[in-house]
């Protein structure tokens, strides 16, 4: 019995370590370096445009937290960005109510596991996982769906803006037009930009405020195009038309990659769910057969090791099947 808490501590520490490594090494530093290298490459023929793009990207990145505070802010479900994430996910709920709802879910899940297995450490671990990881996972899933829908509608919204500009409207009025006539995923963001313009904010600041919340590279390209065009002059409609074509090609490539990786994602889902399906089938056929895994300390250590191995395998398969374009 004395070895059991040590096993649970090792398991919890391994999960936290995997999550921290996945969040810290997400490629954001390399992405910033690639931006700087690409801008340096075009600085020769058009130094003014490169400098304008560099200022815009610095404004997009903004101040970033470092150290353990940044890791804690990304792991914990709360934080100042929770309200923006809820709005982005389309959840019409205040942050404290959202967290309170998952607290109730965590308590119910912990009690269910305790009644099912009789293991207090396992019940506490399940309750902690639901309370900490549950809010973030739901928001991540809903936000990714919203972003995917935004990417599908964004090229059409740029075309709508191009038609407005060719009709003689200024850029600010074209943004208002997209906010009123764009798709259901794009129009709310442009309406927020139009509201900020109405209270006196500049177009660039208003767009970058939305970009920091959306975190979509395609939207960043759009803002950089507007910024460079305002700095250097020229025909904005032609620039936006080229951008719309590029974004459609990126979308086609993204969908092609998703189709090519569908087999890997399906295999990951099947392999990851098989142990739980088999355990449920064995428990339904003979409940006493698996009783030792939950009531005997050695069986609980085996369960901990199996869950840790399962979590590591699922994490590895997800990372292998994920491609960024």
Write up what this structure looks like:
By secondary structure, this protein is an all-alpha fold. It folds into 2 domains: 3-260, no CATH class; 261-325. 82% of the residues lie in helices and 0% in strands. It is built from 15 helices and no strands. It has helices at residues 3-24, 28-42, 47-61, 68-75, 82-89, 95-117, 120-166, 171-181, 187-198, 203-214, 217-232, 236-260, 262-285, 291-295, 297-320. Helix 6 (95-117) runs antiparallel to helix 7 (120-166) and helix 10 runs antiparallel to helix 11. The longest helix has 47 residues, at 120-166. It is elongated. The N and C termini lie far apart (50 Å). The model is unreliable at 23-28, 42-50 and 63-68 (pLDDT under 50).
Q: Secondary-structure element order, as H and E?
A: HHHHHHHHHHHHHHH
What class would the helix/strand composition place it in? mainly alpha
User: Quick one: biggest sheet?
Assistant: none
Low-confidence stretches: 23-28, 42-50, 63-68
Helix content: over 70%
Number of domains: 2
Number of helices: 15
Rg, Cα atoms, Å? 24 Å
Distance between the termini: 50 Å
User: β content, as a range?
Assistant: under 5%
Number of strands: 0
